[in-house]
């Protein structure tokens, strides 16, 4: 017999009854039923119930067992007594009568429990992550993550893609966040950067004639903590294709992502034919460039009903042609208590409030706005929004460029409060036609709004003749249930168009050549039209595992202060290390 096990803890069935077997694993829990000891023995594959009574030669040793001890158990498989079987366990029809044991690894007192799924402080969970990972739900999430990666790989290869690995030590690149820098010992005073994404390399692969690339790529960004991204590093399904239009990318990737979701949705409906929603429409209807389409609330502009009305606050705003009034319908929200609660919520978000109209029995509008604009305008708003008695509408006004994100938050809040969100489905959509540029108020300049390597719609002609803020890009995202899970674009592969695009954002040709020399040179020697995307693996796994915390689907994450509590990173370098790297540490003054 094998030194440690003849079977795993998830393998034994009724067909194994009367066999002498050997298992090794962790003591999940010990139960004493009137002098008979039941040991649930656990390994990666499952749990097997083991039994010792006072007649067992190992009974005295089993009494010493404590949670999470690693033990070897020898014994005979027998059927569980009638009425004690457990149909929820694959091994639930049998048990092992213990004949011999060996303690392979005793455990100290546990800093957090492994049995059960009770909440526990995050700092303890991360410091003792190896224990946390033994817990059933988290352990299963990690295995699901691996299965999702397998599904992605299989589907990508079925679509004719080839897997490549791009460098980790590379040059700094303006991907929208700070780089992690790595000092060079061989080249004093110079630094490598960890890749924020393999963007340039994957485009260079297209220059090299490889046609269809993918990679499960690690990406590194020295960003401040964000709720929807792990500090420091994350993984993405990175994709690039040659000789493609935007439609070709959609046709290749839509079945991959749909198929992955269907594989792991546990029966929940998944969108088959994805809608394509222009950025401007997404902002206008949903107040988000990553709309949650499970929420059926659609916002509408109602400016005409307030123009020249008795509600002077909105009427004066509308004298400026750039200003608008948007309505957010609230089906079933037509009570004063609910409307006041929404108003208070808006004030908590830093807004002056949230105007509203309620429609009561008889269909008359109520509330300060209704009183100011009169019954005809109130009735017209109700008709436009398709509302009825017992419903309400909430209003935001001003420059949409400044209020659309708040309007989206209000839509989400209403959807949650009024149960307008079907949470048992996955709604996927392409968001298209992103603006190429945006105005950076802080630096008072035009800057890229998304990926700087995207092809502008209209090409070089648009870059030279249009107002930059009106240019749309061949840039697209995938939205799912309120999250951006992928982003991509058709690339700007013409050197003169690339230089002009960066010039508009304030980069001179010399700077473009210096910062993107490899790609700029490659474009001079026969660059194919190409495009691709990157899908966030962590967010996809998070959605499919039914959690809203990325730490629940990652092996060894950092905390929100970007610290690895398990390994003690970041840590101070030794004087010898710093000397070899020709680095002196200049710490900020304390206090």
Automatic annotation (TrEMBL):
EC id: 6.1.1.23
Site feature (Important for tRNA non-discrimination) residues: 33, 83
One Pfam entry name: GAD
One example GO MF annotation: aspartate-tRNA(Asn) ligase activity
Top EC class of this enzyme: ligase
Main localization, broad class: cytoplasm
Binding site for L-aspartate: 175, 221, 450, 491
Range of residues in the leader sequence: none
Subcellular location per the Swiss-Prot or TrEMBL entry: Cytoplasm
Catalytic activity: tRNA(Asx) + L-aspartate + ATP = L-aspartyl-tRNA(Asx) + AMP + diphosphate
Binding site for ATP: 221-223, 484, 536-539
Domain Aminoacyl-transfer RNA synthetases class-II family profile: from-to ranges: 148-557
GO CC annotation terms, alphabetical: cytoplasm
Region (Aspartate): 199-202
Keywords assigned by UniProt, alphabetized: Aminoacyl-tRNA synthetase, ATP-binding, Cytoplasm, Ligase, Nucleotide-binding, Protein biosynthesis
GO biological process entries: aspartyl-tRNA aminoacylation
Protein family (similarity comment): Belongs to the class-II aminoacyl-tRNA synthetase family. Type 1 subfamily.
Role noted for this protein: Aspartyl-tRNA synthetase with relaxed tRNA specificity since it is able to aspartylate not only its cognate tRNA(Asp) but also tRNA(Asn). Reaction proceeds in two steps: L-aspartate is first activated by ATP to form Asp-AMP and then transferred to the acceptor end of tRNA(Asp/Asn).
Subunit description: Homodimer.
PANTHER family linked to this entry: ASPARTATE--TRNA LIGASE, MITOCHONDRIAL, ASPARTYL/LYSYL-TRNA SYNTHETASE
Protein name (Swiss-Prot/TrEMBL): Aspartate--tRNA(Asp/Asn) ligase
Organism: Bradyrhizobium macuxiense
């Amino acid at each position: 017999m094998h030194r440690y096990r003849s079977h795993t803890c998830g393998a034994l069935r009724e067909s194994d009854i009367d066999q002498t077997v050997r298992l090794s694993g962790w003591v999940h829990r010990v139960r004493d039923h009137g002098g008979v000891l039941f040991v649930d023995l656990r390994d990666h594959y499952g749990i097997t119930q083991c039994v010792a009574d006072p007649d067992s030669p190992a009974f005295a040793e089993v009494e010493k067992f404590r949670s999470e001890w690693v033990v070897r158990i020898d014994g005979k498989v027998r059927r569980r007594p009638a009425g004690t079987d457990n149909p929820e366990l694959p091994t639930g029809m049998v048990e092992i009568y213990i004949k011999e044991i060996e303690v392979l690894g005793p455990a100290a007192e546990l800093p957090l429990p492994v049995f059960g799924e009770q909440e526990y402080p995050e700092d303890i969970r991360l410091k003792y992550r190896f224990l946390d990972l033994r817990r059933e739900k988290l352990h299963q999430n990690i295995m699901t993550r691996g299965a999702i990666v397998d599904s992605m790989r299989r589907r990508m290869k079925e679509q004719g893609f080839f897997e490549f690995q791009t460098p980790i030590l590379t040059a700094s690149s303006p991907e929208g966040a700070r780089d992690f820098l790595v000092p060079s010992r061989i080249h004093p005073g110079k630094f490598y950067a960890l890749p924020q994404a393999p963007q340039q390399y994957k485009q260079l692969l297209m220059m090299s004639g490889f046609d269809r690339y993918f990679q499960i790529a690690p990406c590194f960004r020295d960003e401040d903590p964000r709720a929807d991204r792990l500090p420091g590093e994350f993984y993405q399904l990175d994709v690039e294709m040659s000789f493609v239009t935007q439609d070709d990318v959609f046709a290749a990737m839509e079945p991959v992502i749909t198929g992955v979701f269907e594989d792991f949705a546990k029966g929940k409906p998944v969108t088959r034919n994805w809608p394509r929603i222009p950025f401007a429409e997404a902002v206008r209807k949903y107040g988000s460039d990553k709309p949650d389409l499970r929420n059926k609330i659609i916002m509408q502009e109602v400016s005409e009903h307030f123009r020249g009305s008795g509600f002077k606050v909105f009427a004066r705003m509308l004298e400026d042609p750039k200003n608008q009034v948007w309505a957010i319908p609230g089906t079933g929200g037509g009570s004063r208590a609910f409307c006041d609660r929404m108003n208070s919520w808006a004030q908590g978000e830093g807004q002056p409030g949230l105007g509203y109209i309620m429609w009561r029995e008889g269909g008359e509008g109520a509330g300060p706005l209704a009183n100011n604009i009169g019954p005809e305008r109130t009735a017209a708003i109700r008709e436009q929004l398709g509302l009825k008695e017992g419903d309400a509408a909430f209003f935001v006004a001003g420059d949409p460029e400044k209020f659309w994100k708040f309007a989206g938050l209000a839509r989400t809040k209403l959807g949650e409060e009024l149960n307008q969100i079907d949470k048992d489905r996955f709604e996927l959509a392409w968001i298209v036609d992103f603006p190429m540029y945006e105005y950076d108020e802080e630096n008072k300049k035009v800057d890229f709004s998304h990926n700087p390597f995207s092809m502008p719609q209209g090409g070089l002609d648009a870059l030279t003749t249009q107002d930059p803020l009106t240019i749309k890009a061949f840039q697209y995202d995938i939205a799912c249930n309120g999250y951006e899970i992928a982003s991509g674009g058709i690339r700007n592969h013409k050197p003169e168009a690339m230089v002009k695009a960066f010039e508009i954002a304030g980069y001179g040709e010399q700077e473009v050549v210096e910062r993107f020399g490899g790609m700029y040179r490659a474009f001079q020697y026969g660059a194919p039209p190409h495009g691709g995307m990157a899908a966030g693996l962590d967010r996809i796994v998070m959605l499919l595992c039914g959690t809203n915390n990325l730490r629940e689907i990652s092996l060894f994450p950092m905390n929100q202060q970007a610290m690895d509590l398990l390994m003690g990173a970041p840590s101070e370098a030794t004087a010898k290390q710093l000397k070899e790297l020709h680095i002196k540490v200049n710490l900020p003054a304390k206090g």
